[in-house]
Amino acid sequence: MPLFAHGVDDATKTFLAGNEGVSIIPFLYIGAKHMVTGYDHLLFLVGVIFFLYRSKDVLIYVSFFTLGHSLTLLFGVLNDTHVNAYLIDAIIGLSIVYKGFDNLGGFKRVFGFQPNTKAAVLIFGLFHGFGLATKLQEFKLSSDGLVENILAFNVGVEIGQFVALLFILLAINYWRRFDSFLRFSTMTNTLLMSGGLMLVGYQMTGYFVG
Q: Is 68 helix (H, G, I), strand (E, B) or coil?
């Protein structure tokens, strides 16, 4: 059984395995719930917005992430493109490592250059979308109403992302009022990197021994 970065509960599994036809509201709900409980996606977003102080920048970066994961989620499911669940979740873990390292100024300090952060968020968004598609494909979804249901799932993901981001932004903006934000920013991003590395190790262990 794949070691998913975050799981799907039994009620959802039962519904997805037995659903026939168009079910807009349930797929909206499942998409939103999956994003809200998807700590791997949320940790990456925390890293993305950690040092973004302007609403315009938050909107731009989150839009790149949304574009990326929407494209591969729809492409993966509708074209029945399969990706190894262990490897894709390991790459999602790497996306968290990347963002923590980037926030620490690691690329300039260690490699002497700064990658294009918008392009990186878009590319990792593509991998996050394949991760979502891989989880859905585990349930052999019925072709009856598939397009409508996947579109509803994707809209649900965006709703869940908006709700989660709202709370994350509120928390970070509140924290920024205090000196502790900058004082503990290095430790916070180091913890992000550590969490991402743990996810990578967890998934690669599953890949080699599963």
A: helix
Q: Which of 129, 158, 155, 141 is nearest to 71 (CA)?
A: 129
Take residue 8 and report the two structure tokens written for it.
């799907």
The number of helix segments (H) and strand segments (E) in the chain equals 10, 0
- Phi first, then psi: give them for residue 206, nearest 5 degrees: -60, -35
CB 197 within 8 A of CB 97: yes
User: What is the overall mean pLDDT for the chain?
Assistant: 91
**Tokens representing residue 205 in the block:** 């262990």
69 within 8 A of 128, measured Cβ to Cβ: yes
**In the structure, what pLDDT confidence band is assigned to residue 199 with cuts at 50, 70 and 90?**
very high
Contacts of 171 (CB under 8 A, 6+ apart): none
Helices (H), 104-145: 106, 117-137
Which 3 state secondary structure label does DSSP give 114?
Answer: coil
What are the tens digits of pLDDT across the range 82-128?
Answer: 889 999 999 999 999 999 999 999 999 999 999 999 999 999 999 99
C-alpha to C-alpha distance for 38 and 19, rounded to whole angstroms: 23
d(CA 98, CA 43): 11
Cα separation, 25 vs 201, whole angstroms:
36
CA-based radius of gyration for the chain: 17
